[in-house]
Amino acid sequence: MRVVRPSSIDEYASWYLHRQRRKGDTRPIPAAPKDQLQVMWERHGEGKMRGWFSATTRWHLALLDPDDLANLVFLESDWTKGEGLVIPGVPGYRLLERVAEKAKTADYFSRPTAHKHKAYYDALASGALRLEGDERVAICSAEESEIRQNPSARYYLLDGVGRCLPYMVLSKAPAVVYAPVESFVAERS
User: Cβ distance 181 to 69 under 8 Å?
Assistant: First the structure.
């Protein structure tokens, strides 16, 4: 991982709210950073914020190399388990690289339930989408329980599951030449 520059929770909140706006969310976005942060906690607190995010959390923008990306902890939910992407009980079962292998083996992107991820897959494959700028991702320090289950992990994929999964599959194929993934990084102090 190569740190590009310092960042902040305020920059992350603004980026995320504006990204949601571009995806069709019509709810207002306040102008003041402290108000944006409050809205972020209210609208997206459980999924896109961690309880330990505070004034002491270190934030920066970084470029993720292939190993960084491969070792991110992937979302575990009813959806990811139901699709057979995440299968509990196997060491490293939530690592993005392992999830991508399962997606490829199961031909996940051809399923009707994968239509949103298939759109990202197609855009990444054609070069129309790059994981930078407005399309960057967000990661944060993994929880101890996530690291115990996935020993090579250090970071959790906070935002970008739908973009990173197809990118990992494509770059491993290799159907695309790997370009570093730009990411917000939140690290525990």
Answer: yes
Q: Pick from 127, 137, 134: which is nearest to 170 by CA? A: 127
From the list 121, 119, 137, the residue with the least C-alpha distance to 72 is 137
User: Phi/psi of residue 76, each to 5°?
Assistant: -110, 115
Among the listed ranges 15-19, 87-91, 103-107, which one has the minimum average pLDDT value? 87-91
Secondary structure element (H or E) that encloses residue 61, with its range: strand 58-64
Q: Which domain holds residue 24?
A: 2-187
- pLDDT tens-digit map of 118-153: 999 999 999 999 999 999 999 999 999 999 999 999
C-alpha–C-alpha distance, residues 165 and 163, integer Å: 6
What's the total number of domains in the chain? 1
pLDDT digits (tens, 9 = 90+) for 13-45: 999 999 999 999 999 999 999 999 999 999 988
Q: How far is 38 from 129, CA to CA, in rounded Å?
A: 30
